[in-house]
């Protein structure tokens, strides 16, 4: 049995790297629980495995150390100490490059410095798309194994029929307006675009915490500006707490197309969930979202925005829907087979790193 200290372990992406039948002979350690009880749902934040000293204290419990994400707030010097401990105890490091640009950081400097440490120290690199692998090669001169994002939903949800067809709903979820989001620019372009589509609805969702003054994501002026777009008859604005998983899956199943308002980023679990449910996705040109699953693309980066390309993407999706065609959707048999391949490929990477 190969023992992996995974940062994190309980996140859905990491859980679905395991063979569904458990025959990959890989066991990932559970996420350590913070002494003060601080943690996100699922229990993986803050990532105690990245605290200096954890590797040394737990070196007999694992064979391979695998970093995914969760190092947002870890100083580069602390990461250097962690990778130094790994080297001293002859423990290989595997790093999956999920984000070439951190979607939570308004500036890229901190994430760049963190990645410079991890990439230089890694015995093996993994990423999710060919474009990201090319970017890794161009920046660091390192080869990354390309392994796709596994399914997000379970087999029951993936196999469940979508609700009966209603109106064409173009949806944008602003969430808590993290750093890489520019929802107002995209929303103002979508208002006239959707108005041209017979019977279509434009739906905006956002989390209520942006109106709570004691919250990290407090942004009442932006929230109010977004709410004002409800003055248009075809626009619905909904403010609510975080969805539970089931509420999120119901939401994604109820809309026709999800528009991602990201000015920067790399990959998306949200997009994968849409693919599991058969919800169409319109993605920005930044990052490598369009290499993950079939979707429409519009020009949107930190430097540029093309409303015409957004119109084309939404209109193409609408015309396909109007002709009775469903959006691309995962089938469980395909997702399961893909997951088996992903699990075996990860074991191969671990074995190679150990060798």
Level-1 CATH class name of the largest domain: Alpha Beta
CATH architecture verdict of the largest domain = 3-Layer(aba) Sandwich
**What would the principal axes of the Cα set say about the shape?**
globular
The amount of beta strand, in percent, is 15-25%
Indicate how many domains the architecture comprises: 2
Number of E strands: 12
Number of helices: 12
Task: Write out key terms for the chains shown.
alpha/beta, 2 domains, Rossmann fold, 37% helix, six-stranded parallel beta sheet, 15% strand, single chain, 12 strands, 355 residues
Give a short overview:
By secondary structure, this protein is an alpha/beta fold. It folds into two domains: about 1-150 and about 335-355, Rossmann fold, CATH 3.40.50.2000; about 155-320, Rossmann fold, CATH 3.40.50.2000.
Overall description:
The chain is an alpha/beta fold and 355 residues long. The chain has 2 domains: 2-151 and 336-354, Glycogen Phosphorylase B (Rossmann fold); 155-322, Rossmann fold. The protein contains 12 helices and 12 strands. It has a 6-stranded parallel β-sheet with strand order 2-1-3-4-5-6, with helices on both faces. Strands 9-8-7-10-11-12 form a 6-stranded parallel β-sheet, with helices on both faces. α3 (76-88) runs parallel beside α4 (109-121) and α7 crosses α11 (307-322). The chain starts with a strand and ends with a helix. The model has no long low-confidence stretch (mean pLDDT 95).
How are the elements arranged and paired?
Blueprint: E1 2-7, H1 12-15, E2 26-28, H2 54-58, E3 64-67, H3 76-88, E4 93-97, H4 109-121, E5 124-127, H5 130-140, E6 144-146, H6 155-159, E7 169-173, H7 183-195, E8 201-207, H8 220-227, E9 235-240, H9 245-254, E10 257-259, H10 269-277, E11 280-284, E12 296-298, H11 307-322, H12 332-354
Parallel strand pairs: 1-2, 1-3, 3-4, 4-5, 5-6, 7-8, 7-10, 8-9, 10-11, 11-12
